[in-house]
Amino acid sequence: MAKDALKDLELLLRSRYGLIHLDTREEDRANSLLLHLADARQIPLFTWTRTRGLVRAGMDDPVYQTQDPVKALRHVATARIEALYHFEGLVGALQGQGADLLVAQLKDAASSLETIDGAVVLTGDGIDLPSPLNEMAAHVTLPGPSDAEFRAMLGSIIRDLSARQDLEVSLSREEMATLVKSLSGLTLMEAGKILTKAIVEDGALTSKDIQMVIDAKRQIVEREGLLEYYPVETTMAGVADLKSLKAWLEKRKAAVKNPEGAEQFGLTFPKGVLLLGVPGCGKSLSAKAVASEWGLPLIKLDPSNLYNKYVGESEGNFKRAMRAAERMSPVVLWIDELEKAFASGGSEDGGVSQRILGSFLSWMQDRRGDVFVVATANDIQRLPPEFLRKGRFDEIFFVDLPDEVTRAEVFRIHLASRGHDPASFDLRGLAADTEGFSGSEIEQVVVSALYTAFSSSRTLDSAGLRSEISATRPLAVTMSERMDAMRAWAQERTVPAN
After folding, report:
1. Got the DSSP string for 42-93?
2. Burial of 244 (0-12, 13-18, 19+ CB in 10 A)
3. How buried is residue 320: exposed, middle or buried, by Cβ count under 10 Å (0-12/13-18/19+)?
4. Quick one: how far is CA 76 from the chain centroid?
5. Which CATH superfamily is domain 3-141 in?
6. What CA–CA distance (Å, rounded) separates 325 from 321?
7. What is the pLDDT of residue 351?
8. Fold annotation for 404-478
9. What are the start-end ranges of the H helices in 240-378?
10. What is the CATH number of domain 236-399?
């Protein structure tokens, strides 16, 4: 159970840290870990809650009149005995008005333990301590439950329910691995409730229950309000060309589908890709298709949801969004138009975007969940150079305008998706007429031609499409200099996606 965290906590105790912040949402797991630590150090563990006060592990009665946190901390400071003191739910009370006395008393209690074998341990998820405490505290993150813990819990649930009802378990080894991996980001309590509900509903544990876990995690993410959940509908068959990108993704599909086998083979979950290039050529569509092909949920980070007028709130929003993404793992995280969130050289926002950029780069390096990032960008010049450094993403692809064969395929896809037989159109001729058009511009040609034909009570034909083509001036014409500069920049720095 969280052996690295246990080792870190023991080192901090021996280093005489009197105050430790254990970053976790799981009070029960934290208390169990601290009990292991207290046993290893041969010192008692006291746990404080607002309803009971300070209670020594293994005893029933609390220390007299310690429900008040100030009195409980005063007891710690005056008793000065070698012990661990776990204060549950205290972190929130350290913020806002009226917290000065509590902060001062906590500082005194922690200082009194710095010369002996003991510490005050605060638990809370992603909460910053007030400055006087933050300077003296050590911070340890308790990792989420491991696959082994989830498997043990699932086994316990199956044994318990099997004793009370007929139960069918029909999961292949790979499906079981996928189910366990899908629980990543949940607490043991959350996972237990979701799995118990899934089994009790139909008296079975099947591959369909994997989707139930994903749906439950989606509801958790949506409650945060910082990420958007996208239903996965598009497949790679609906993305024309991009052969190089598709081949790259296909090579990694097996590792995503079989995480247990990949780990045994020495592979880790892929980090992500950065898609640069011409607007309207399939970058955003590819993000949706990756999630579909890999069978993973797709969530989108909209940078506009992060920014807040209050100091520090924007950075806090970003951290909460990334924790929510990790809870949803394994997942595809789509960040569209990355340059708008982290534009380089801008000081008009007081440095907020630069601080969020630093947080994002740190998260990409140290993320704890299986989150595959698909980031897209249209304006290369506005991207900070840190994003383009090798290792941030697994690969950087450049998406260019479609060639003639691809343009014919784009016409075929959009005509067929709207109920028209592509065989009745001159696809090769239409492709030749749309030199320099992006995929989205071709789609708009089809849509506009459909409106014209419908309003005139005519059948859509190649002539109608050509009429719309002649009325369209593509970006390749109106922004030709910028397109040429973009291609020149990408030639030696990226991998062609087409």
Report:
1. T--EEEEETTTEEEETT-SSBPTT-SSHHHHHHHHHHH--S-EEEETT-GGG
2. middle
3. middle
4. 39
5. P-loop containing nucleotide triphosphate hydrolases (3.40.50.300)
6. 6
7. 64
8. Helicase, Ruva Protein; domain 3 (1.10.8)
9. 243-257, 259-264, 283-294, 313-328, 338-341, 352-366
10. 3.40.50.300
Which pLDDT band holds residue 141 (cuts at 50, 70, 90)?
confident
Asked if omega into 330 is within 30° of 0 (cis), the reply is yes
Q: How many residues belong to the chain? A: 498
Question: Residue 473, by phi and psi: left (phi above 0), alpha (psi -120 to 50) or beta?
Answer: beta
Q: Is 251 helix (H, G, I), strand (E, B) or coil?
A: helix
Instruction: Give the pLDDT band of residue 83 (cuts 50, 70, 90).
Output: very high
3-state secondary structure 351-418: CHHHHHHHHHHHHHHHCCCCEEEEEEECCHHHCCHHHHCCCCCCEEEEECCCCHHHHHHHHHHHHHHC
The band of 3, judged by pLDDT with boundaries at 50, 70 and 90, is low
309 band by pLDDT with thresholds 50, 70 and 90 = very low
CA separation for the pair 316, 328 (Å, rounded): 19
Q: Confidence band (pLDDT; 50, 70, 90) for 2?
A: low
Domain 147-224: top CATH class = mainly alpha
Block residue for tokens 């990949």: 262
Q: Categorize the per-residue pLDDT at 138 as very low, low, confident or very high, splitting at 50, 70 and 90.
A: very high
State the span(s) of the chain assigned CATH 3.40.50.300: 3-141, 236-399
Q: Could you write out the DSSP letters of every residue in 221-245? A: HHHHSSEEEE-----GGGS-S-HHH
